[in-house]
Amino acid sequence: MSVFQRLSMIFRSKANRALDSVEDPRETLDYSYQKQLELLQKVRRGVADVATSRKRVELQIQQLEQQSGKLETQSRAALTQGREDLAREALTRRSGLAQQIEGLREQHANLQGEEQKLTMAAQRLQTKVDAFRTRKETIKANYTAAQAQTQISEAFSGISEEMGDVGMAVQRAEDKTADMQARAGAVDELLASGALDDVTGTARDDIQSELDRMASTTSVESDLERMKMELGQGGGESAPQIERGNGAGNTGNREGA
Question: pLDDT value at position 239?
């Protein structure tokens, strides 16, 4: 297979897929039904045209028969008056009219047969069109019901295109909300730790920061002294050391005295 043949096949397959995606079977059925109605209308017009031609031939036959009868009367009148030559001329014309009438009768028979054929064809076509219309409406109803059922099923399962777009929008909103919440929490932590300056003007200045640091240090020292005192009152190894220190101090005082 050549490259052009492959490209042609790919193009036709893609074109067919695109047509399948946009084609509505209901519209195709309605279009086919419309074409059948147009064909039926043409057949009926054909029947009407043939019937008109038949009727026109019948009128011509009647006129020629009337002329033929008149010529016969004239020929008789001529013989009565001894004009054999005139009677012969009238009969000659009457013979010509008879030939025309015979030809018209053959034409009339042909038109009548054609009219009957077209009438039967129109009746058969009408039957087919009626049957197709019934089938068309049934198929359209079934297709509409199947389409609705499919849309409902896709909506429940969440696989339809619209539901997919909604789900993606909800997911994006949730992700964005989570990001904003995380960012707000991080900013609050940075502001509380002092790593991020508060641009609103409520941040503490250097003097207040130093005072707070000193207060924290004083509190730590107070807690440390309290713990030392608690350990000294509780006994243990530290108590004798404290007593020896106090005793040595007392001895020195006594010696000095």
Answer: 43
C-alpha to C-alpha distance for 210 and 216, rounded to whole angstroms: 10
Residue 241 and residue 124 share a domain: no
Structure-token pair, residue 171: 């997911």
In whole angstroms, what separates CA 253 from the centre of its chain?
109
Give the model's pLDDT for residue 253: 45
- Are 127 and 216 contained in the same domain? no
State how far the Cα of 101 lies from the Cα of 69, in Å rounded to an integer. 12
CB 118, CB 43: distance < 8 Å: yes
Cα Rg, the chain, nearest whole Å: 60
Mean pLDDT by 10 residues, the chain (257 residues): 59 56 78 91 92 94 92 90 89 91 93 92 92 91 85 67 66 82 75 60 60 74 83 53 43 42
Q: How is 78-147 classified by DSSP, letter by letter?
A: HHHTT-HHHHHHHHHHHHHHHHHHHHHHHHHHHHHHHHHHHHHHHHHHHHHHHHHHHHHHHHHHHHHHHH
Tokens of 174: 């949730």
Give per-residue burial for 155-164: e unless 16+ CB within 10 Å, then b: eeeeebeeee
- Report d(CA 215, CA 226) in Å as an integer: 16
Q: What single-letter amino acid sits at 235?
A: G
Domain range for residue 156? 3-160
- Angle separating helix axes 206-233 and 238-256, nearest 10 degrees: 90
Residues 115 and 232 in one domain: no
